[in-house]
Amino acid sequence: MQRRTILTGTALGVAGAALGLTRPAGARAGQPARGLLAVRGVTVIDAARGVRRDQTVLIRDDRILDADSAQRVPVPPGTRVVDGRGKYLIPGLADMHTHATGIDDTDPELYVVNGVTTTREMSGGAEARSWQRQVAAGERLGPRWTVGSKIIDGTPSLWEGIDTDNDLHIAVADPAQARAAVRQEHAAGAAFIKTYTRLSRTAFLAVAEECRRLGLPFLGHVPDFVELTEASDRGLRTVEHLFGIWYDTSADEQRLRRAVAAVPIGPGEYNGWFNRMHPLEYAAACTYDRRRAERVFRRVARNGTYVTPTLVLHETNDLPEQIDRHDPRNRYFSADMIGFWDWAVDNLYLPGRTPARIAESRELFRRRLSLTADLAAAGVPLMTGTDLGTSYLMPGFSLHDELALLVRAGLKPLEALGAATLNPARYLRRSDQGVVARGALADLVLLDADPLHDIRNTARIDSVVVRGRLLDRAARVHLLADIEARVKQPSATPATYRGCACHGPARAVV
Ligand SMILES: [Zn+2]
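Above are the sequence and the zinc ion SMILES. Below is the predicted complex in structure-token form.
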């Protein structure tokens, strides 16, 4: 799912120039550190080896040179030393489901300041690619980015008429078009192919086939016309969101699948999809059969398919009445951004919320939490992702909310941490990531309080190390103040949001 405000190329340039954001945040701001850095006397926590007390972690450039008990790791003279006593060091966090919003140009720094050092962009836009380039070139601070393809959807696409420039999606009518779309995105440099909701079964199978031929991962939404187990058997790497999981696990699967296939969805009916699918999704969730689910999940786990539950997205969608529009973190976002969020809440999320629908949505969200716990218990690897672009979801900040929801769902804090560190690293096939160990990437977060005692302590950040560069407490405070000041500068022309009948994507026109 994604909701994204689309600025035209010109509008983006104008807004960016007005905010002074087309320049890197500071010369050499993102250059990897040179020299030695040590965090001494710290409690290290990672999902691979658990808790280790009184450790020294020695870092050179962008790698961990050594990590062991303090007595075993001598600190050479001239090393910059951070006193880690009473503090907790975890690997950098990953947000595996993001969309660049096209409004504020502050996402890279917001991720890092919040300890998010890895991100996966799910709609392959030019903006994320340019951030990826800037960060890799050391021009600005930011996470390591994996950028996927445009969304590959069926016809009619939920994006038809919304994404009018076809910046974000490709609609494919048949297997031949599906294969051509995969080849096109592969040639354009996509790190993976993202499948979408309305792909036909035959087109989905063609995507799977073509991706296998090219050695390209494919992942995304389980289309309405495909069983989760079949998608997983065919090699779907990750399932995004929990929408596509209910039908395989329902005692009433056959009837509900016939009903889903008969739902008429027209072109561009993004919001209509939610409204028409809601009764069926609710019915499927209410007929959830744990024994069936266990069989399905074990098969998915055996296939090595990951799930990114995006609970913060579901909470926003299911319970829009709970959105805190006066969140103190709003100060890090421009008036245009907040205006867009409010527009979407008022025009898309809240209309039609009868008491009966609200009660159903509450129950549905409660069931999503227990579904998440069942997935984890069956051994399905979970990853943290937020679906940035959704109203009031905030780069970096919302990842901590996702961690808290995973624990509320029933995961142990260390399992939740693993979903934000070790599992994304395994998914990316990087053995040097997601752990605090000799030779690993120096992406780390130093916390003031124990995240295993209370997962919300992941937000109590003292310092962040990204690509070996230390962002200490003072630097973090400074950077946040800088972001706050940058987003307050007026944009060239106020954005307005052209209303559409969709669930969120809107064109900001200037
Ligand atoms: Zn999305």
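Residues 1-2, 97, 99, 122, 387 surround zinc ion (CB under 6 Å).
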